[in-house]
Design goal:
Strand order of the largest sheet: 5-4-14-13-10-11
Helix content: under 10%
Number of helices: 0
Number of strands: 14
Order of helices and strands: EEEEEEEEEEEEEE
Structural class: mainly beta
Length: about 170
């Protein structure tokens, strides 16, 4: 809105200050196009959770597929999955049993149509048995039981230092 009425003695310009995605501040003119002083802030670094498998911690910078003899899916979208084998002398663990993936700030655990199922024990909640192909969100401290003595733990986001890189 603009008023150039000499009787009012004032001039008003429409200026909009908006925040886009909490990372960009932009000053726009009345037509909505960028005006003066577009300012940007660097996005916060993504904090990656991890999963403890045996004596190793795997950072969830891409999907992690765990099983007796895991294989990658035929079609891979995004980062190629990291394949992690676990022992299963009685074959309770399926070849490709479970997938761990970080989606934004949460960890998603997906049963990959395993034969014997996946039990998820989140802190302060009752255990849940995932059905074939079912997913659930897991918080740090969640234990994922694949069977045959394989209990995996979701750990809090890891700092990006050389000492905390995944041990493989």
């Amino acid at each position: 809105m603009r008023s150039d009425d000499p009787d009012r003695g004032e001039r008003l310009d429409d200026t909009v200050l908006s925040r886009l995605d909490d990372t960009v501040l932009r000053r726009t003119d009345r037509r909505g196009s960028a005006a003066v002083g577009a300012e940007t802030r660097a996005p916060a670094p993504r904090r990656l959770s991890g999963v403890v498998i045996g004596d190793s911690v795997f950072r969830l910078d891409g999907p992690v597929i765990v099983g007796r003899r895991p294989t990658a899916p035929r079609v891979v979208r995004g980062a190629a999955p990291r394949l992690v084998s676990v022992p299963s002398p009685t074959h309770e663990v399926s070849g490709s049993h479970v997938e761990f993936r970080q989606d934004g700030d949460v960890v998603v655990v997906t049963d990959l149509r395993s034969t014997n199922g996946t039990i998820v024990r989140s802190p302060a909640r009752l255990p849940v048995r995932l059905r074939q192909g079912e997913s659930t969100v897991a918080v740090p401290g969640t234990i994922v039981d694949l069977g045959d003595g394989n209990s995996l733990e979701i750990v809090a986001p890891l700092r990006s230092t050389a000492q905390e890189e995944p041990h493989t």
